[in-house]
């Protein structure tokens, strides 16, 4: 039986965070050690794409390592989740900090001894204007549903000459903002939240409007990444 998704008002979508509210399937999956989730457009019963929670909870892979190899100086991991990229960054010798709005994600990271704060990137952040590298991995360029606003905020956090390392949508032309929900295999669903998927073609325009320039795009293991510089 398909779950009926009730309509929501615009303010509910504006105020919601990734995977929060409703049945909170993201929090449940993290605390349960894994599970299958999908991110789908609000109002749709299916047609979403899988959320790779197993990869979030695993050690950094080769593609992740290639991202960290391009990091320099201090590293701020925005939407750090349970801490995979942050751990890899610290192992590589970078002073690092993670931010995430999910209580379960931050609890998982700090239980491993990783430095993480439960807050939005749009909230006050330690050492604003001093970070050398900001990470937006695992689709986190979608945070807030407004790539220009997110990248402009990252630019504020960076030191002069600092870098944003972002993961892009695999479809090079992708440029789609929508109200999304996270749904698990038991039909539990989050509150709707704003999200945006960005491929390599629209990215340079968003970067320029945010005061950044795209200096590199590369692919690794079916994933696509970009290096933006302030």
Automatic annotation (TrEMBL):
Keyword Methyltransferase attributed: yes
Record-level GO BP terms: methylation
Keyword Oxidoreductase part of the UniProt annotation: no
Limits of the Methyltransferase domain: 75-162
Keywords carried by this UniProt record: Methyltransferase, Transferase
GO terms, molecular function: methyltransferase activity
UniProt-recorded name of the protein: Class I SAM-dependent methyltransferase
Source organism per UniProt: Microbacterium esteraromaticum
Lineage: Bacteria, Bacillati, Actinomycetota, Actinomycetes, Micrococcales
């Amino acid at each position: 039986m398909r779950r009926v998704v009730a309509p929501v008002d615009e303010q509910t979508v504006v105020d919601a965070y990734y995977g929060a509210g409703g049945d909170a399937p993201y929090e449940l999956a993290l605390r349960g050690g894994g599970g299958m989730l999908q991110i789908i457009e609000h109002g749709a019963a299916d047609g979403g794409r899988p959320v790779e929670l197993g990869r979030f909870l695993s050690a950094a892979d080769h593609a992740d390592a290639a991202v960290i190899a391009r990091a320099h100086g201090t590293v701020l991991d925005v939407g750090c989740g349970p801490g995979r990229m942050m751990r890899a960054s610290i192992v590589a010798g970078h002073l690092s900090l993670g931010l995430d709005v999910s209580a379960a994600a931050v609890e998982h990271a700090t239980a491993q001894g990783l430095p993480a704060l439960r807050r939005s990137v749009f909230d006050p952040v330690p050492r604003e204007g001093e970070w050398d590298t900001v990470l937006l991995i695992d689709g986190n360029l979608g945070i807030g549903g407004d790539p220009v606003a997110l990248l402009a905020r990252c630019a504020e956090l960076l030191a002069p000459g600092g870098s944003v390392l972002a993961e892009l949508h695999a479809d090079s032309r992708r440029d789609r903002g929508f109200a999304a929900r996270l749904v698990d295999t038991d039909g539990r669903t989050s509150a709707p939240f704003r999200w945006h998927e960005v491929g390599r073609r629209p990215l340079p325009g968003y970067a320029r409007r945010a005061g950044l320039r795209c200096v590199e795009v590369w692919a690794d293991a079916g994933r696509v990444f970009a290096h933006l510089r302030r």
